[in-house]
Amino acid sequence: MPQPEEAHADRHAPDRAVLVTRGLSKSYRTGHVIQGRRPALQDLDLELRRGEILGYVGPNGSGKTTTLKLLVGLLRPDRGDATVFGEPLASRAWRSRAGYLPEHPYLYDYLTAAEYLDYVGRLFGIERKTRRERTRELLALVGLEQSAGVPLRRFSKGMLQRAGLAQALVNDPELLLLDEPMSGLDPIGRRLVRDLILELRRAGKTVLFSTHILSDAEALCDRVAVLRAGRLLKVGPLAELLRVDIAHMEVLASGIAAQGPGLEAAARVVSLGDRLRLEVEERSLGRLIVAIETNGGRVLGVQPVRRSLEDYFFEEMGGPATRMGEWGEG
Amino acid sequence: MGRGLSRILAVAANTFRETVRERVLYNLVVFAILMTLAGLLLGPLSIRQDEKILKDLGLAAMDLFGTLIAVFIGTGLVSKEIERRSLYPLLAKPLSRGEFFLGKFVGLGFTLLVNLSVMLLGLLLTLAAIGRRADPALLTAAYPIFLGLVLVVAFALLFSTLTSSTLAAVLTMVVVVVGRFADVIRGMREVLPGVPQQLAQALFTVVPNFANFDFKTRAAYGEAVPPAVLGWVTLYAAAWTAVVLGLGLASFRSRDFQ
User: Fold this and answer.
1) Residues B32, B48 contacting (CB under 8 angstroms)
2) pLDDT at residue A329 greater than cutoff 50
3) Which of A71, A74, A76 to mutate to test the interface with B (most CBs of B within 10 A)?
């Protein structure tokens, strides 16, 4: 693995935040003749704790990609600053300990996947033998071992995304900054990347990933940071954002029709194929269960109502007007 | 070897591999065909003439092919990386923008060196095939051609940090053409007295004089370029290349990659 260029004072300080931003702001120039500036990110204060997975979510143009580009030095901030592993953002020393996957990565198409990873390994100063072993390991990790010798120009979008993830892991980074890591992946690829991110957390890595696929954020994140129009709206543990509503219960039942007698006790009935999901106030729960059984149905499960991340967004960002289809690049 | 230098060489090696894989060196095939045909057709001419024409043709082809590669590949090296966003994952690594930029420069410079060397070898083989011996004067003319090409690459990289690859190619070509006629520009007031002296002087100053790298005629007559002249040309090329690369580097460093 690469030798860090400088000693890292925080290596034995597990409680210290891995990444801290203070007032990080960026605007883009608009227009050619009459020039103005459009704010893309405003006064971002964010901390990423060691060993956590932080989901960075928000609709189009909310500033997700801008944030990640500022962190890796592809953009210069207008104001504010950030530290990574206690080092200033502009320092190159911390980069030996971090990995970055851009959105829709374009890798050199005249190289094979193995050649590309070897090239990246050289940039980290990794020895040739170690590079070779690491390349083999990583290609196996992302399910591309059979395509090691295939030029990247023949890769599908999903394969490129996986190769992009592999290049972010070449230096066995402690911190991963992933911009839409599930983008372009088929269900198998998404599962693979999900499992990989969870595996990275088990290995003590810290992950910041932006996503517009809320179910991925729900499945993976310890905390979620929500962005809207370049401003950080909220950041916190999922359980806090998706509070459990114990006053309402959710009943899953089968073998009954949605219009069956007695089911009016439910505040909301959703048909899920041959099953029904019924939301009911806690005090009417007993009445509803009796009604289901009286009608020949079967109660499959009862649990408190829990808001999904999607519900949260609909509420926080002005309801269904913020369509899921509008989400993506940030 | 320092880590910075090792990263520059990694980028340079990859750039060389890119040019080879993108079939840039296919021009050598055209050159080989050109030399073979010239060798066959010039046989009936007198001894001194066929040798001179062959040397002239060979050196001119080296200059032309080299310039085309330097302009069109050089302008694409950085601007295409920006347009395709292929440099994003790389610049997030310990590789600095300066190392990336210099690596690209060294890589294309090496490609041109290989290209020129193979063409020079081809020219010498063609001369040998028609019974002429290897002339060291050719080497002293090929070296300044290489220096001029390195300077063209520096301009191509500078423009490619500022604009699209197409416009960068046009601008680089303008510099090359104007630079080849730098002496004409300096003396343009003799032909066009209305041209302000300052304009003529400014044009002459901001564009390198590419005629300084042209010793083809002298070499064709078998006259080697003196070492002192080669030394001066080397200094001239080094100074210009350093300035142009410095400007390119400053421009590349200040860029935002949106």
Assistant:
1) no
2) no
3) A74
Q: Which of A67, A112, A123 to mutate to test the interface with B (most CBs of B within 10 A)?
A: A123
Find chain A residues with C-beta within 8 A of B93's C-beta. 95, 100, 120, 123-124, 171
Q: What is the 3-state secondary structure (H, E, C) of chain A?
A: CCCCCCCCCCCCCCCCEEEEEEEEEEEEEECCCCCEEEEEEEEEEEEEECCCEEEEECCCCCCHHHHHHHHHCCCCCCEEEEEECCEECCCCHHHHHEEEECCCCCCCCCCEHHHHHHHHHHHCCCCHHHHHHHHHHHHHHCCCHHHCCCEHHHCCHHHHHHHHHHHHCCCCCCEEEEECCCCCCCHHHHHHHHHHHHHHHHCCCEEEEEECCHHHHHHHCCEEEEEECCEEEEEEEHHHHCCEEEEEEEEEEECCCCCCCCHHHCCEEEEECCEEEEEEEHHHHHHHHHHHHHCCCEEEEEEEEECCHHHHHHHHCCHHHCCHHHCCCC
User: A275-281 and A268-272: which strand pairing?
Assistant: antiparallel
Q: What is the pLDDT of residues B66-88, one digit of tens each?
A: 999 999 999 988 988 998 999 99
d(CA A138, CA A157): 18
* pLDDT tens-place string over residues B215-251: 999 998 889 999 999 999 999 999 999 999 999 999 9
**Side chain identity, residue B251:** S
Give the pLDDT score at A261. Answer: 81
User: What pTM value is reported for the model?
Assistant: 0.84
A218-250 pLDDT, tens digit each: 888 989 999 988 999 889 887 777 666 667 888
The ipTM is 0.88
Q: How far is B22 from chain A (nearest CA, A)?
A: 8
